[in-house]
Each structure stands twice: as C-alpha cells, then as structure tokens.
Amino acid sequence: MRKIIVNLNYASYPIYIDFNLLNIKDIFYPLKKNDRVMLVTDTVLSPIWKNIVLGSLVDYGMIVDELIIPDGEKYKNFVSVELLISNLLNKCHDRHTTLIALGGGVIGDLTGFVASIYQRGIRFIQIPTTLLSQVDAAIGGKTGVNHVLGKNMIGSFWQPTSVIINLNFLNTLPKNQFISGLSEVVKYAIAFDYDFFVWLEKNINDILSLNMNTLLYCVTRCCELKKKIIVIDERENNCRMLLNLGHTYGHAIESYFEYSSFLHGESVSIGIVIALYTSEILGLLNIVDIKRIINLLEKIGLPTIIPKEISSRSFLKYMIRDKKNYFGQITLILPTSIGEVKVFNNVSKNIIMDAIQMCY
Amino acid sequence: MRKIIVNLNYASYPIYIDFNLLNIKDIFYPLKKNDRVMLVTDTVLSPIWKNIVLGSLVDYGMIVDELIIPDGEKYKNFVSVELLISNLLNKCHDRHTTLIALGGGVIGDLTGFVASIYQRGIRFIQIPTTLLSQVDAAIGGKTGVNHVLGKNMIGSFWQPTSVIINLNFLNTLPKNQFISGLSEVVKYAIAFDYDFFVWLEKNINDILSLNMNTLLYCVTRCCELKKKIIVIDERENNCRMLLNLGHTYGHAIESYFEYSSFLHGESVSIGIVIALYTSEILGLLNIVDIKRIINLLEKIGLPTIIPKEISSRSFLKYMIRDKKNYFGQITLILPTSIGEVKVFNNVSKNIIMDAIQMCY
C-alpha cells in the first residue's frame, strides 16, 4: 500500500493507494466502533460497489445510513445539498458524524461541501471511484457545487479525514470516463514533471489496458505532485492556480453545454490544447512540443479540437466568470515547456481569440 | 475609539467600538479605493441607515452594489443564500470582492455564511446594528442559516475582516430588540464575570436609558469576554460551548414558535432561567443567586417564564437536535455560581423535565 501524508498547518491526513484497500483493517481510522456514518453514493455506483463498502463499514462496527444521489454533474447543485442535509437532520446525525463519499468528483465535491457546512463542519472520508477523482478531485479539500451561472461557484476548502484510493474501482469504470481522467494525468506531467510525461508516452498502452502496477505508479505520482502543491498553497492564492492548466478554457466548454455533452476531462483536454496554442502565440512554447502533447492526448483518445457549436465569442463570455480572474482580467495558466507552467494575468482578448480560432 | 484585536492562529482582525465610527478615515481598512463591495442589509434598516453607510463607502472610493433582504429570522434560510449568490454572480463579483453586512444577527449570519462559500470564500465586514449582534453574533465567525428542522444547522466558521460596532445604531433600535440583546449581556456576566454582573445591577437604568458612555463600557466588556473565549477555542470544541448558556433551552422555544413569537434574546432569557433551576436541582446553585439573576432579568423587562403553549415534552424533542449534543445525550451549560458555568453532558431527562416544570 502506498501512503502519502498531506501535511497542512492545522491538520494532516493520509492518502492510501492500492488494490483491495477495503479489506484492510483500520482503513477507516480514526473512525471507531459504534460511530455513525452517512454513506453517499450515486445511482450508477450503488448497484456495483455500495454493498461492498457498506459491508466493510458494518464489519468495522459502524452505524451506517446511506443516501443515493442521481448520477451526473447536473445533480452537483444546491438541491442535492439540501437533500443530503435534510437526510442528516431527519436521521438526527449530530456534529460527530462522518460523511463517506463513494463516487467520482460530483459525489466527492458535493459530500465534502455538505461536510463543511453541516452544523458548521463535520468529518468526511473520500473514497474516489473514478480515475479523475483518484488523481485530482478527491485530494486537496476543494469542495463545491455548481450554479447555473458557473461551475463550482459555491464551495469551500474543507480537507477530508482520509482519502482511500482503491484501484479496483477502475475495473468497472466506463472507458470514456477512464480516458477523461487521463487528461488530468497528462495535465500534471505538462505542468510539473517532464520525466513523468516521458514515462506516460512510454507506458500509455499499459495504462489504457489497465495494467494495475502501471496504474499504481501513475496514480501515486499524480497524488504526490498534487500534494506538493497543496501543502504550499492550500487556498489557491498562488501556485495552486497552476493546477488549473486547461481549466479556464475547459470550464467554458462545460458551461456552454451545461455540463452534458462533454465529460470534465474531455473539456480539459481541449482546454489544454487551446492553452498550448496561446503559449505558442505568446512565443512561450514551440510547435514540436505542442505536437508531442497533442499526439499523446490523441493516442489516449481525448478530444483535441473545439466542437463547432461553440463560437469563439461564447468562450469569452464564460471565461470572464472564472474564479481566478481579478478585476475583469482573464487569468490563464500557460505552459512554457513540457514540465513547466506559469500564471498569466494579462493575456489580451485578441490573443485568446486567435488561440481559440486555431483549435477548430 | 475602543479597539479589540481578535488574534487567531491563521489571522487576526479588529473590533472597533464607538459612536460615529463611519466618519473615521480608514475605518474600512484593508479595503481600498476601487475595490468592489456588496452591501447587504434588510428592509427595516435600509430606509434608516443604508444611505449613511453607502455614503461612507462611496466617499472611500469603493464600487458598491447592494442587496436588501426582507427583515426577520425566517429569511435566514437557503433561499436568501441563493438570492445573494445569484446577485453576486449576475454582477460578476469575483473572489476579490467583499461583502458588508449591515444589520443584526440575521444579516450578519447570512452574509458571513455566503462569504464563506462564495467562490470558496471571500472577505466580509460586519457592521452590526442591534445590541445582540454588537455584543455577540457579529464577533467570532459563527455564520449560518436555519433549516426547518433546526436553527443554525447549516453554517461555517468564517471570521470577518473587521467588526465595526457603531453605537449610534442603538438610538433607532426598537426597545424590545434592545432588551432582547441585554439577555446576552447578562449571559456573559453570569457565565464569566461576577464583577460585571454587579456593575450591571448598578447601571441597568443608565443602560436602559441609552446612556452612551455606560453602553460603551457594557458593549466593550462583552466583546472582551467573548474574544477571550474565541481565541482559545474558535471551533467550539471545548470552552466556546460555555457561551451557549441558556441557548439549548432557548433554541427549543424559538424552534417551537418557528422563530416568530419570541425574539432570540427573549428565548435565551427564559432558557437562562431554566438553566438556573436545572443547576438548583443538581445542587450547583443556591436559590438566593437564582432570585438575584431573575430579578435583574425582570428589571430589564425580559421574560422569565415559559409560555403555556409549549409542553415540557415539546422541549425535549427540540433540544435533542442541538448541535452540542453527542450520541443522543443532551449537553447543557449550567451556572455553578454567578460568574462561572460548566458543561454537563449527562443530565438526565427527568431532571431536565423537572427544571422545565419549575418555569411555567
């Protein structure tokens, strides 16, 4: 079992990564016998994995309630927040209870957010089931829900008590979701680690065929890279912003399609490509590196061109609402080489428009 | 001007107390020229004080939007949260904006809560206008809204950037609200400061006639007492619970009447009396001290008996949901003398019922 400790000033918590983690004694520590928990999952995962997790919790001696939320990004909203809170209150859960998020980013973000506001804050454990949440969403304490006017506009920083990354879940993950998750993996490599990028180029076939040892290394490396950033800048005042490579453009695509046509990682993949071309226009990155990155994304099966439905003007409208912005200026995270990114606050709208135009 | 600094591990902020504070240069520090702010107030305060505060902000060079919420505890709910968030998004406020809460506990708690969850947390300034919020609600970072199943069940700990306690507001505060606020003042004295209790007994007439120097001392002393507690235990893991003297019983009364028939402080006053008798049954407090406290509450004009509509059984039903509870046990804060309170986790339901019976 790989164990990464996320050390923050006021608290620290472990990330466990391996196969068959749910069988390990004390995996739910610091929970103890007779503690109350509320297991939150979705309608897709429930028939596949819920009873296994439930069994582990019951074996552990815990008193378990459960709530099943409909699957999908569109349920990551205030209605689901109220549903979960009403369930907790109706079942008289006090502030010593623990929420357990069994699912992808939607379940994790929603459950973490409720944990941060229920009775002014309770514990929660992340059990991410998608590649995307295992390498990204479940780590670092960003929680939140969407608003019709923008993604993740309502949320908090609230760290989990532990993150249990059980790789077995990936065996039942739909292929398109697995591929979507890989865009965040590639993002880490482009942003922080050239050697990891080279490793990905070499091992991408093993990853796509779910070779478990390759996956164990891949997921662990991503968690290590993310952990390094979080312990320096938990609240995204500076370097944590770098994790948003491809996300400002990507969020615009997701918002335009109202979180339905494209998976998060698919939008991020297109967003990364637009960021690459923005870098090129600014003279930050050469075309050889750009082709090399696009080649990897395509090999994975990720989209790399903008769907024709979105006009370049629509992009700007959605980008202007990004949380990183300051005084109406659009903040972009742009690669300066494979393995390094920087924050740019002052990119002109014309350059952004030109970069977008290059990606149809 | 009195200035109290609340020093927390990760941040510290000032509480300013005086008359005519809004005229003071730099009172809104660290806000600066051209910063955006959203002023939140209610329909009752708006015609009296909004333009004065707005004038100060505009003089200061800030770009001000405003939102007016209907007056009353019943608007401290998720609907108002969504209204404020939608307003912020529609007006493109980014995460560098600042909310300004001009109002009593409802406006302060609601605005602070939105500040804690809008784009994962933004700044807010408290400008409390009622005695209750000046001595209690605006200080210490407890934010939140009510749920139909319980008061303040949704919330967070989120500290303000500063608290501006302008005593002039008390001149236009309805008498019953002023009196309601005094129950929290008496609470501080009973819980922490015998000398302050004696001072209150001596000066209560000056307070009731709004003698401003007496009020300045009174409000400052309460803020000092609360600050001492908060810096030790911001998140109410131990000694901050002591501030809830009278509140477990009081919340039950408020919940029963759905926050309509009794003001918060009026419920707390009755709650304090029930706590006194609970102490007496447990042999913690003598009847002379109890009569002395009740005498002060009555002199102020606060209610000290339970309205007949609530049966003693209803009390228990609502008390069981209190946030301080652990494993279904009701946690009570009980006086052991005038100037000292302790936490009791194990008071039997029979004793609670007996104490309630003594207060009709």
Automatic annotation (TrEMBL), chains A, B:
NAD(+) binds at residues 71-76, 105-109, 129-130, 142, 151, 169-172. GO terms for molecular function: 3-dehydroquinate synthase activity; metal ion binding; nucleotide binding. Binds 1 divalent metal cation per subunit. Can use either Co(2+) or Zn(2+). Residues 181-325 form the 3-dehydroquinate synthase C-terminal domain. Zn(2+) binds at E184, H247, H264. InterPro entries: Dehydroquinate_synthase, DHQ_synth_AroB, DHQ_synth_fam, DHQS/DOIS_N, DHQS_C. Pathway: Metabolic intermediate biosynthesis; chorismate biosynthesis; chorismate from D-erythrose 4-phosphate and phosphoenolpyruvate: step 2/7. Its cofactor is Co(2+); Zn(2+); NAD(+). It catalyses: 7-phospho-2-dehydro-3-deoxy-D-arabino-heptonate = 3-dehydroquinate + phosphate. The keyword Zinc applies. GO terms for biological process: amino acid biosynthetic process; aromatic amino acid family biosynthetic process; chorismate biosynthetic process. Residues 67-179 form the 3-dehydroquinate synthase N-terminal domain. It is found in: Cytoplasm. GO terms for cellular component: cytoplasm. Pfam families: DHQ_synthase, DHQS_C. Belongs to the sugar phosphate cyclases superfamily. Dehydroquinate synthase family. PANTHER family: 3-DEHYDROQUINATE SYNTHASE (PTHR43622), 3-DEHYDROQUINATE SYNTHASE, CHLOROPLASTIC (PTHR43622:SF7). Catalyzes the conversion of 3-deoxy-D-arabino-heptulosonate 7-phosphate (DAHP) to dehydroquinate (DHQ). This is 3-dehydroquinate synthase.
